């Protein structure tokens, strides 16, 4: 499998719930699928700073990190082939965030739509790793997952 992977990339994902426990999902411009806001860690940046930056860029919201949900590196769920043919293995640090300001908007070229969904009424076209991420965020396990 490793010969089919073009690169490895540190990533972050951030789940955000509203006051009604609906989850914020982003319809991504790169793949046309719904997913938890996520992105890459840039050189010289911490995972926390990357998470806060990615949410601001993709949603317009300012957040604080409230919990580490887990670290995900299993190639079964973390290798993703983009429509352009590039295959990336992500090592993703997954957080829960709380909105502390900003205004939700879709002005980012990475974002087609943003919507708070009921947990039991999610869109069918989710990124493949997101069902497990959602399940992990909802279980309130005391220690972070390592998957």
Secondary-structure map with pairings?
Blueprint: E1 7-16, E2 23-28, E3 34-35, E4 38-40, H1 47-59, E5 61-72, H2 75-78, E6 79-81, E7 87-102, E8 111-117, H3 130-139, E9 145-146
Parallel strand pairs: 1-7, 5-9
Antiparallel strand pairs: 1-4, 2-3, 2-8, 5-7, 6-7
Question: What does this entry look like structurally?
Answer:
The protein is an alpha+beta fold and 147 residues long. It is 18% helix and 41% strand. Strands 1, 4, 5, 6, 7 and 9 form a six-stranded mixed β-sheet that branches. Strands 3-2-8 form a three-stranded antiparallel β-sheet, with no helix packed on it. The protein starts with 6 loop residues before the first strand and ends with a strand.
What's the count of strands?
9
What is the helix tally? 3
SS-based structural class? alpha+beta
Give the helix proportion (percent range).
Answer: 10-25%
Named at the architecture level, the CATH assignment is Alpha-Beta Complex
- CATH C-level category: Alpha Beta
Ranges where pLDDT stays below 50 over 5 or more residues in a row are none
Write down the CATH topology: Nucleoside Triphosphate Pyrophosphohydrolase
Can you give the mean pLDDT?
A: 94
* Strand-residue proportion: 35-45%
Task: Please trace the helix and strand order, writing H or E for each element.
Answer: EEEEHEHEEEHE
What integer value in Å does the Rg equal? 14 Å
Number of domains: 1
């Amino acid at each position: 499998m490793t010969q089919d992977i073009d690169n490895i990339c540190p990533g972050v994902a951030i789940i955000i719930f509203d006051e009604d426990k609906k989850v914020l999902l982003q319809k991504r411009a790169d793949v046309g699928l719904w997913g938890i806001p996520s992105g890459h860690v840039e050189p010289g940046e911490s995972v926390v700073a990357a998470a806060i930056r990615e949410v601001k860029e993709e949603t317009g919201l300012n957040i604080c990190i409230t919990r580490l949900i887990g670290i995900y590196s299993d190639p079964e769920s973390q290798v993703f082939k983009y429509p352009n043919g590039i295959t990336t293995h992500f090592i993703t640090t997954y957080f829960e965030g709380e909105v502390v300001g900003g205004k939700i908007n879709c002005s980012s070229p990475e974002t087609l739509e943003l919507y708070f969904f009921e947990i039991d009424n999610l869109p069918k076209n989710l990124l493949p790793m997101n069902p497990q991420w959602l399940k992990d965020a909802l279980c309130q396990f005391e220690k972070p997952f390592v998957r």
